[in-house]
Write a structure and sequence with these properties.
homotetramer, 371 residues, alpha+beta, Chorismate synthase, AroC fold, 5-stranded antiparallel β-sheet, 4-stranded antiparallel β-sheet, 11 helices
Amino acid sequence: MLQYITSGESHGKYLIAILEGIPSGLSVNTALINKELRRRQEGYGRGPRMDIEKDQVMITSGLIKGKTTGAPIGLMIINKDVTVDSLPQLLRPRPGHADFAGALKYDQGIREVLERSSARETALRVAVGALCKQLLQKFNINIISHVVRIGTVNINHPNLTFEMVKKMIKASRLNCISREVEKRMIKEINQAMKRNDTLGGEFEVFANGVPVGLGSYVHHMRKLDAAIAQGLMSIQAVKAVEFGLGVGYAAASGSRAHDELFYAKGKGYYRKTNNAGGIEGGMSNGSDIIVRATMKPIATLKRPLLSVNMKTKKTDSASFERSDICAVPSCSVIAEGVVAYEITRAFLEKFGGDSLTEITRNYKGYIRQIK
Amino acid sequence: MLQYITSGESHGKYLIAILEGIPSGLSVNTALINKELRRRQEGYGRGPRMDIEKDQVMITSGLIKGKTTGAPIGLMIINKDVTVDSLPQLLRPRPGHADFAGALKYDQGIREVLERSSARETALRVAVGALCKQLLQKFNINIISHVVRIGTVNINHPNLTFEMVKKMIKASRLNCISREVEKRMIKEINQAMKRNDTLGGEFEVFANGVPVGLGSYVHHMRKLDAAIAQGLMSIQAVKAVEFGLGVGYAAASGSRAHDELFYAKGKGYYRKTNNAGGIEGGMSNGSDIIVRATMKPIATLKRPLLSVNMKTKKTDSASFERSDICAVPSCSVIAEGVVAYEITRAFLEKFGGDSLTEITRNYKGYIRQIK
Amino acid sequence: MLQYITSGESHGKYLIAILEGIPSGLSVNTALINKELRRRQEGYGRGPRMDIEKDQVMITSGLIKGKTTGAPIGLMIINKDVTVDSLPQLLRPRPGHADFAGALKYDQGIREVLERSSARETALRVAVGALCKQLLQKFNINIISHVVRIGTVNINHPNLTFEMVKKMIKASRLNCISREVEKRMIKEINQAMKRNDTLGGEFEVFANGVPVGLGSYVHHMRKLDAAIAQGLMSIQAVKAVEFGLGVGYAAASGSRAHDELFYAKGKGYYRKTNNAGGIEGGMSNGSDIIVRATMKPIATLKRPLLSVNMKTKKTDSASFERSDICAVPSCSVIAEGVVAYEITRAFLEKFGGDSLTEITRNYKGYIRQIK
Amino acid sequence: MLQYITSGESHGKYLIAILEGIPSGLSVNTALINKELRRRQEGYGRGPRMDIEKDQVMITSGLIKGKTTGAPIGLMIINKDVTVDSLPQLLRPRPGHADFAGALKYDQGIREVLERSSARETALRVAVGALCKQLLQKFNINIISHVVRIGTVNINHPNLTFEMVKKMIKASRLNCISREVEKRMIKEINQAMKRNDTLGGEFEVFANGVPVGLGSYVHHMRKLDAAIAQGLMSIQAVKAVEFGLGVGYAAASGSRAHDELFYAKGKGYYRKTNNAGGIEGGMSNGSDIIVRATMKPIATLKRPLLSVNMKTKKTDSASFERSDICAVPSCSVIAEGVVAYEITRAFLEKFGGDSLTEITRNYKGYIRQIK
């Protein structure tokens, strides 16, 4: 069973994840992981920290001569801005952050909370996901994302498919499929910056090539959509997760909502629509998995909200820490990693196997079986 | 660590769940569990099966003289409509259901799939949740829900609180806070019925009295919102989960989105808004937990969608099984149960303890500590 | 991932287990499960309760027309001696039992403790294991056991193999391979009975046909021997678990302790010895898995030991409840079930798959691969 | 829920563990962890690798200003002998090692297997355990071990208690309580060395101060002895685990085997014997936990056993890698760490809490309750 733990503070030296359960025989391309890390750091609207850190992963274990061995894989990123033990204590929790509840829960200062609750940790989730993507690609499963909304600017492009997004996404500063919408989004970010404000948004993750039957309906803990929802909701600042038509399902009637099934020789089973976002009964159904998430605006504000000094109990404005204006494009990259991990986990659970050879054989046997 | 497994087929005799990890010393009121089961079965728009089944739980273990002992608790519901072994095999998967992917995955017929993927299983989740509610009530934690949308009819009532919903919800046929909106919803259901169509909708679950600090930001597997999202998304037909402002966060700027913090002597910390839905940093923050979910329309249609005969591979209309027109009110009751379970799980993890005495002492100590 | 929970009290009506994760397509033979249940109840030295209960399993879910569907499998045994709510409270804990620690931990009476800690629960573990055995047999994996010691009487028969035990075990009243030793064991039990005393003993479980490579060395949670040790030590009264040479390894030098490896065309790899008990590096190595466990004497004594009245704190003799003189043969049957479950779990983790068809294909592919 | 994953190869640069679930507020003493690491490396009979590596832990995360924050704790040891990518491939599996099964299972070379299956990994388990010990000491729980047998030399000292062992163990080269026996053990090791042979042995771990009621009888996954057995059996080369009287229970009758219970004012409940090894019904019973394990002789022999060249399938002598003659004292130190971890896990599950303050309050409340 695939699992991972991340560790590290925002301003500690070491960010380290251990990913346990990857089979043997996979050649890992570190450059591709670094490319994903770079994608997380880019995006118009990120803060000054991104000028300091240029994340590079070091794989500390689990590979011999570049190939996985089945052993736990250590993924390490070294921080440049290492100040965790010298940073000042904070007393005024930032509304929207872990500060308040975290300080009470763990009976400690806000500094101790934010060093761990910081989104800096998500660099490791990207690294973990980037490695999973390399495994999935051996089975022609590919995962991409695109931003559909930043603040009040959104894109309205129904019936997008993986192939369309893939073609349209190239070289975007905001991971957006439309150059025109992107311009308006950048304007929106610039305006927020001037107001010392922050912005949230929405993005979609597409997984293409996922075989029918990952996840299961038999037990509430086995549903693939539930696992992906858990993963995405655990990303800092994500507040909503929707599959396919998502909230739009509520207003649609059954006769229009569900995706009719067709069959053609050679092509096999197919659909003309994908309202389900590739999930029926908690399982992948062979269509693209499409999941959409909403990120709330960054909670650290240059013009801070009202808060309470936890020592004096007096009203005061919240603390300010260096932060971003808008991190929705980054969040979409993190979400790709999370989706890649969850699909890999479900994939390995279905196909078993300890080596790439064995998994490939099992996978191919199943594909033949369901034809 | 609290856990449960459900078992049983839609038309099998026994629906049984085992709930493991409930502490000793809780007097269990079976009538209250049955009341929740009844709530799940009611609601305008349910199908003829509800006239057959009048769910009553039997507690098969884990109680001695009406009190929990710490041992696993068996919850059994006996089906009246027991025909699982004599029902005909089906060949044409219903779009939107587990039929298609389930049959391929498990290499079996559609009948075998739908007997388990059926929402009949959710009766057990309601029973599990109803028992959890009784534990939570010892700590003044209460959970309710209300339906906010059925098809195109929705209620628009911002800034609802637990207390408001509690007052307004009484004696509704659709678990709706407004008699006026309810009437329009019933009309919507009647129209769908005439069209042989089905409807989905949206509902909200409120948890009141949850102490600050359940869940945690320290590890992706410890976040309370992620756990609740996993639980809700695992309910049949749920396609979207949102906390607080949810998808509405995307268009709100940071300066307006986050809930400022206040303090008053006697009252302690408080907020004037609750956009966060009671969750910050993956933890309960002391405000009501508010989570909204979208249910897709029932996938079993009297006027069936197009499908494929999995034997002949020819296009044909999907199978029809006795079904509901609209089950959103039921789904909201199930969701209460799921939320109750997830909060209980996080509660027991935070407060430890094996008996109600011990947990109460630990809980009170913490409440004093964070004052 | 295979898992199960058992529920039920010693004198409650329902003993129910749910086994989750068994693949589809397995024809389950209930008579074979009942046969194993009978084996658990027999054995010279069992107490009067065994005259009352004649365990018969009812499968409450997870089967349609006698075949597994992938859904959770409910296993129910109905107790005849149902008196849980009317039995008297006890105040004097029996040394060696859960009574003392259980009453303090759960802040309740001894009655509440012993109703759950009772070995009556192991009937369900036998049922779970008997079902697992039926799955394993599809892959020619077979599990048997034999008693090697009761009290001071032991059998000394080095280098036993699965085949030898299988041949010699038939029709024994004590699950013992030697009629001569069995006679002495029965005499030992008779003598203990006269003294109002009880006896423990030792037994071995053999698993034959386990393919090379179940379990793993890569992570401490993946080792097969550790999982089996966990399972066996969790059986009531088991106090020691040994693989192969076990404690005998301590006095053997390396040059004599390890099993040299050979290869012959047709036969493939093989060993001439099996000191390792079929486990190297936490994995099955293709030889028989041989694990030995020690059961302590029954802790309920007709001539009770000294204890303390937990109310008055005065010294008094411990409570007496109807009990056995010796249950080592029963324990060996339970242990077979536990080993069957753990091997099934490791087997399904390695081979993945959701249907018997798929698992068989995956298994055969691997067997070819490692030839 | 406490958990950890270790990572790293025997000759890779980084050995890293992440320990997740330690509460906030614990001042960690790195020197004490290093002292335990040194204890693991010492002991007469270790091989030349121990002259190269002088293990020092670096804590990479989870501490701010020397105190735990509740965040995952990274523990890193840097290897000096870093040659993993340049070491030659091996073809002749060493009997007794993971080589054979590991190479087949993961479809890779023996080198890839032994780099992970190596006992080098246990340095991290010692580090994890040493940190857990520091938490346990806050509650006056202490853990020590002593070697009771090396090869044919064993110590026979019945009724040892934690206090006795603690007094007698000081400054031993073999972690042995008797100077006289130690001399004979060293002689035994010297003789084995001359024969190019290796030795195993036995050791005991004692845990003192464990409160009544860790673990539970209610579910097979909650038993403390089963968890400890799982942990110990997962240590490389451990083949047997026994609690208290262990295998000796088999020949003892019930009237002599169980530990009678007494009570004295001031002192509370107590026992005069401890055959149970501090465990009844899968729970700590307030007496010292005493667990004994058997380590098989080191499987790497200078005068190698017969094996098979996995390429040519020809019989040949097994590979030789630099190794130890006897590592039983090291193994006893590792086992202390494993027991410390398992007790900490059970302790945190019982007492809940996120900060040392909270846990201490919960713990004290329980101790008062059960008085």
